[in-house]
Design goal:
Length: about 500
């Protein structure tokens, strides 16, 4: 029990990471959580709760927590925990998180994160964009204090910082069941049973008895980029059976020191991390092309009473040949203002006005307050809608992505973007803003600068959907897998016993 995992907001990607670490570390860790509700109250009060509920132990050596927790408060309230090596992980940061109005930004949340960084021994960010947007905003943020402002906080915090990408558990979407029933019961956003090296590493020597999630044209593209050959329903990887996992991973991350602007990485086919003296360098491996970007896109889905719908694979695969079907666009994001659904639907409605053929699946989770644009857009889009609503089953979710041609982000906030990376893994052609974290994750050809550029790209794709269905993705997703990143996390959470404990 040497690693203490603390998550004050146990949901979404926060839950995924903690569950993954607990699974991989097994008996070597203990997990303490609070439910993913009322985020603001968790950020304010979680330290006091954990002071009372985290069991005492002489075996702890590492404390790993997300930045929702006020680590400074917990360290003061529990001196025994304060002596541990403290690792703080940033999924997002409150200094760069967008608010609808400037006066809505509560100073306390960003201030808590700064205090936590000062107390932490290691500060880890899920992207270079996340790290730089936080560090470079500290000075301006502190000017909100009317007088007696602290100085040089960025210089104090930066040496502790490093980038370690979020480890995505990629499913085997080449099969008819990508996740186990146990995983489905735990709901969307969590995948616990399958290995996640290269996108389709698990299909080695496995016989499939039913149709795969991926339509035929995507599987054909897959064969080209992974060296996977199909004989009937049997799949085998070219090469020697005893080859190491690294061969399947292909190109992982590329050193970005020569490709940086204002501390951020430019668009690269590989991955990149911002390095600092004394921090480990990025993973490296022989470069290799990644998966295909194609899909079949226009088929009905079943409607339910509520927003939670079921995606029907048999219906998707029936009907016209995929080459004749309209472009299928996916939008797999939270139904909130920071994902800018207004821009997305404005572009789609413009396509509709020009009578261009397309279908759309609007995925992602809605919460208590749903922006009005969703109900308005659903009515206006009419028969162009294939699917509308959150899919609690991860199988259904990946199935929907596999049937799409293009995945779009219009986000005004993104510090990593698990949904976009998952969609690319499922063979979707990504279109993302040329801003935020996206230039760090995706090659330049998948980025747009304005809504007008997004419209023009989609207009061309609507006229020629075969362009995306034949496209081979120019970037890499393998470097975001646990197989690629697990060693880094293990090193981060390894520590020699300290004499002062």
């Amino acid at each position: 029990m040497s690693v203490l995992l603390i998550e004050a907001f146990y949901g979404g990607s926060h839950k995924q990471l903690m569950d993954l670490l607990q699974e991989e570390l097994q008996e070597d860790c203990v997990l303490c959580t609070l439910p993913a509700k009322k985020w603001h109250w968790k950020a304010r009060t979680a330290a006091l709760y954990f002071m009372q509920t985290v069991p005492t132990s002489t075996n702890y050596r590492i404390l790993f927590a997300s930045s929702v927790l006020n680590l400074a408060e917990l360290a003061a309230l529990r001196p025994d925990l304060g002596k541990l090596k403290k690792v703080l992980y940033f999924h997002e940061n409150q200094l760069a998180y967008p608010v609808q109005k400037c006066q809505e930004r509560d100073f306390q949340y960003g201030y808590n994160q700064i205090l936590s960084c000062l107390v932490a021994d290691v500060v880890v960010f899920n992207s270079a964009f996340n790290m730089e947007s936080f560090l470079t905003s500290i000075g301006k943020f502190m000017k909100l204090i009317p007088d007696h402002r602290p100085k040089d906080l960025e210089k104090m915090i930066r040496p502790k910082c490093q980038v370690l990408y979020f480890p995505v558990r990629f499913p085997d979407v080449s099969s008819s069941h990508s996740v186990s029933s146990e995983t489905q019961e735990k709901g969307f956003g969590e995948q616990t049973r399958y290995q996640s090296s290269f996108s389709f590493h698990l299909i080695l020597s496995t016989v499939r008895t039913s149709k795969p999630f991926m339509p035929e044209h995507k599987l054909a593209r897959l064969e080209k980029v992974t060296g996977v050959k199909r004989n009937g329903d049997a799949y085998q990887l070219e090469g020697l059976p005893g080859q190491q996992e690294s061969r399947a991973l292909g190109g992982l991350m590329k050193n970005s020191n020569a490709h940086r602007e204002s501390g951020l990485c430019e668009a690269q086919p590989g991955l990149c991390t911002t390095q600092h003296e004394g921090l480990p360098s990025p993973l490296t491996a022989p470069a290799r092309p990644n998966k295909s970007e194609a899909s079949e896109g226009t088929n009905p889905c079943q409607e339910e009473d509520k927003q939670h719908l079921t995606f029907n694979l048999s219906n998707i695969l029936s009907g016209r040949d995929y080459q004749q079907r309209p472009l299928h666009v996916a939008w797999p994001h939270r139904w909130e203002h920071d994902k800018d659904p207004e821009t997305f639907f404005k572009v789609l409605l413009k396509l509709k006005e020009k009578e261009l053929p397309f279908h759309v699946s609007v995925l992602g989770e809605a919460f208590t307050e749903i922006p009005d644009i969703f109900s308005e857009a659903k009515k206006a889009l009419g028969s162009s809608v294939l699917h509308w609503g959150y899919l609690p089953s991860k199988d259904d979710y990946f199935q929907a992505l596999c049937m799409a041609d293009v995945v779009i982000s219009t986000a005004k906030h993104e510090f990593f973007g698990v949904a976009m990376v998952e969609a690319v893994h499922c063979g979707c052609y990504p279109l993302c803003p040329k801003a935020l974290v996206y230039p760090e994750i995706f090659p330049a050809e998948y980025l747009y600068s304005t809504p007008e550029q997004l419209f023009k790209r989609l207009q061309n794709f609507c006229k020629r959907p075969d362009i995306v269905r034949k496209h081979l993705y120019k970037g890499e997703t393998a470097g975001f897998s646990w197989a690629a990143l697990g060693g880094k996390f293990r090193s981060l959470l390894a520590a020699e016993p300290r004499e002062d404990l």
